[in-house]
Amino acid sequence: MIARRDLAVCVAARTDLSPTCFRLTLTAEGPVEAVPGQFGMLSCVEGFDPFLRRAFSLAGVSQRRGSTEVEFLIKEVGKGTTLLRHATPGSELRLLAPLGNGFSLDPGAHRLALVAGGIGLPPVLFAAEVLAGRETRFDLYLGAANVAELLEVERCGKAAAAVGGEAVLTTDDGSRGEHAFVTTALARRLSQGRVYDRVLACGPTPMLAALTELAREHALETELSLEEPMACGVGVCLGCVVELADGRYVPTCKEGPVFPAARLAARWWP
Q1: Does residue 123 share a domain with residue 238?
Q2: pTM here?
Q3: What average pLDDT does the segment 127-147 reach?
C-alpha cells in the first residue's frame, strides 16, 4: 500500500465544468504516488473554518518537473465545496493522501467496462487515462442527469479512442447521447454479445445497485467505488461504515472505497 502523507499543496488552477461542478488542480512539492480509486482529505481554506477536511476521489496524479500535480473534480454542495470553488490560484491548502484502496487494473485484461454516474467520474477518469497509457482496452460509460452535467466528455472520448474503445454518453432527459440510464446502455451492449473481463464503477448508490444486479445476471466481476460520507478518512470516526456480505461492518475509508461487489451486503443486490 502507498503510504499516505499530509501535504502542503498550492492551488494551481480552478475551472468550472458545469453549473455545479468544477476542476481543482493542485501542486505539491516532490513525488506523490496514487492509484485510481484512492482519495484524499482536502482542507477548504488556509484556516480552520470549516475545521474538517473534505473527502474527494483523485481524478489524476502526474509528475511535473520535481513537483506533483493533483487533480480533483468537485461538485459544489455546501460551505466547504463553495469555498473551494472560489479558491484563487496561489492559495495554500493541506491534503492528506493517498487514502484507501484503488481499482484492480490488471495488465493482462482483454477489455474492461468503466462506468461513471455524475460526479462519480473522477476515479473512473483517472483509471481511463492510466489504462490508455498502458494500452489496455476499455469502453467508458458516462451518464448524467442532463447535458450540462456531463463532465470531461472530450477527455473521456480521447482516452477511450486511444485504445480503440467506445465512449458511451447517456442522459436521463435525452439532451445528449443515449436517452437512458448509464446502466441501461451497458446492459444493451452486453445483450448484444459484448464481453468484458471486469467492470469498474463509481456513482450514486441506486446506479451501483442496478449495476451489481446486471453484473450478477452476466457473471461479471465488478468493483464499486462507494460514495459514503467521510469525516476523518482514516477509520477513526466510523462515519462511513458499510455492511459486508459476511455481516461485518467496516469503514469505507480503510477497507475501500473500492470493493468487489460480491463482498458487499444485500443492500447492493436488489
Answers
A1: yes
A2: 0.95
A3: 97
